Amino acid sequence: MTRSKRIYVLDTNVLMHDPTALFKFEEHDVFIPMMVLEELDNGKKGHSEASRNARQVSRFLNELIEAHGSNNLDGGVSLAPPKGLQLRSAESVGKLLFQLKPVETGKRFGTVMPDNLILGSILQLREDNPGIPVVLVSKDINLRIKASICAVPAEDYENDRALDDFNLLFTGATELPGDFWERHEGNLRSWTEKGRTFYEVRRMPDDGWYANQFLYLPGEDEVELKVAKLDGDRAILQIVDDYRSHQHQVWGINARNREQNFAFNALMDPEIDFVTLLGTAGTGKTLLALAAGLAQTMDVQRYREIIMTRATVSVGEDIGFLPGTEEEKMTPWMGALTDNLEVLTHTDDHGAWGRGATNDLLASRIKIRAMNFMRGRTFLNRWVIVDEAQNLTPKQMKTLITRAGPGTKIICMGNVEQIDTPYLTETTSGLTYAVDRFKNWAHSAHITLRRGERSRLADYASEVL
């Protein structure tokens, strides 16, 4: 069954969000109203991500027109992607259409709002192309409401979704069935190597395991395992370390629940280069990442220093420009770092002087960096913590992760219920994107922290407020 050809009208915010959106509508045509070109022109100045994207869209449009020849644009321009542009979907074979005549006076919804001019051009387009479905694609909810009032089908731009339903996101930990050992009784092999216990089992069709996924069997036979290796129809499982016992502390910190224990196992494993931690406020993401980083930077000296960065998106009103160096400007954003360092530098027995000396020593090994200046950098043997990563777009996330040089470990953490960036949702956040894309890689791990460990007051507030 062949799908009927449609014309998709792209709003400015879609192109400024994803410049490659032009080439992601397969065999369908794409229509650009004149008002969208005006808004792209107005938005191209500046150094923000949106401004860079606006300039990139203009370059794409220019390349397409030059390849076609600018004499006759009546029939549209072929939407063949430029060389060097790698797209996940099949190559586009649709056409790019421009608004070639002004909107008739009767079809305007007033001339003030850009949205109204875009709507007028859509109604004109529909009249000029009877029988062809015309769909508006916009990330602006209000424009989609206006379009619905005018009986124009409108959709959100969903091509950049990591997955359809956030509840389907990989959690990193799975409960095993109660009869797990009985199921594998005939084909189970176990051995001990370098003080660690391993099991080799045959994979079941419904397992759906990934490398470094954590598995647990609750109850009397409680056991916590990690998928150490997947090899065809066999899986090698390893019993994880127990960081809840006082003999096994990380920088004086113990895991308080199962998920925190799994997180410590992922953070302390030198074979894992990329760790994502999801969890609501108070689940211990920053504390775990800092404790593991200090233990491996100061004690083991596996890493040279800790670099901490975060997306600087205000929750309330902005407080204006901040004075000082890059580090000083970032300090107000790093309250989480100072709060957690207080917990980790429990040196009360040495008095105020001892506490101050410890803080100075740690501060010399912890660098605070702004995300704006990450391009072109390479981090060698660094422990990089990216806080509030839910506010990053997939493109920004890629820019950050590709900074990693040899011996560097990156920890991305955040709470996708607290997204403050416009046009980002739970399913399009860069953090969700990273969790979904990295789950198949043997050197990455993910864990969703579920239980708040801040205080009974914080736990109750998160439930009832």
Question: What is the count of β-strands?
Answer: 18
Distance between the termini: 50 Å
Give the domain tally.
Answer: 2
What oligomeric state is this?
Answer: single chain
Q: Low-confidence spans: pLDDT under 50, at least 5 residues?
A: none
CATH domain class of the largest domain: Alpha Beta
What CATH calls the topology of the largest domain is Rossmann fold
Radius of gyration (CA) equals 26 Å
Look at the helices and sheets and give the structural class. Answer: alpha/beta
Examine the secondary-structure arrangement and name the CATH architecture of the largest domain: 3-Layer(aba) Sandwich
The CATH homologous superfamily of the largest domain corresponds to P-loop containing nucleotide triphosphate hydrolases
Average residue pLDDT: 86
Major sheet characteristics = 6 strands, mixed
The proportion of strand residues reads 15-25%
Helix coverage percent: 25-40%
Query: In order across it, which strands form the biggest sheet?
Result: 3-4-2-1-5-6
Q: In one word, what is the shape? A: globular
SS element count, helices: 14
Q: Describe it for me?
A:
- The chain has 465 residues and is an alpha/beta fold.
- It has two domains: 7-155, 5'-nuclease (Rossmann fold, 3-Layer(aba) Sandwich), CATH 3.40.50; 248-464, Rossmann fold.
- 31% of the residues lie in helices and 19% in strands.
- The protein has helices at 12-17, 34-42, 49-68, 114-128, 141-149, 180-183, 258-268, 285-299, 326-330, 335-344, 351-365, 394-401, 430-438, 456-464, and strands at 7-10, 29-32, 77-78, 95-98, 134-137, 154-155, 173-175, 189-193, 196-202, 214-217, 223-231, 234-239, 274-279, 305-310, 366-368, 382-387, 409-414, 444-449.
- The strands form three sheets. Strands 3-4-2-1-5-6 form a six-stranded mixed β-sheet. Strands 7-10-11-12-9-8 form a six-stranded mixed β-sheet, covered by helices on one side.
